[in-house]
Write a structure and sequence with these properties.
This protein is α/β, with parallel strands linked by helices. The chain has a domain of 125 residues: Carbonic anhydrase (Beta-carbonic Anhydrase, Chain A, 3-Layer(aba) Sandwich). Helix content is 39%, strand content 16%. The chain has 8 helices and 5 strands. Helix 2 links the parallel strand 1 and strand 2.
Length: 191
Amino acid sequence: MTSLSEIMNYNESFVKEKKYEEFVTTKFPNKRIVILTCMDTRLIELLPKAMNLKNGDAKIIKSAGAIITHPFGGLMRSILVAVYELQADEVYVVGHHDCGMSSIDTSRIVDSMVKRGIDQSMFKTLKYSGIDMNAWLHGFSDVTESVKKSVDAIKNHPLIPKDVNVHGLVINPDNGKLDVIENGYKSMETV
């Protein structure tokens, strides 16, 4: 059985048995926060539990490493929509220890792409078009510095209002312990 078949079979009973009822909420986050975090599988249930979040409490945006790679990319667009349309007034960037982005090797990924059928000439086309694969697929060596960089990109974005608190945290994926890297309330005091 394929994973899609398993999902669809389960979903049929999920809907039929009305298991969705315990998750009913609105599109507005109850705690008025938006979280940018990593897509790491260890964080799916751990992060909300470690932050005392229930369904409906927060908007959660996931990407590899919780890294803002472009000030006008999809991640910033999602954060801006959460702030301006969905009543979020705080942003949390949550990185984690032992992140795959801390050991990413662009050349290994490119080799893997070629092995899976991407024509080698595509990389020349991308380079000609201004896409630097090393910069685009970059990771980080220090999760704390990476979180600070993403917090800075959000906090200083020209479309983020100055009254939005932007926090940076790092979670331990083994036990859920959170460390504050950037306290957005303290930076608001200095404004």
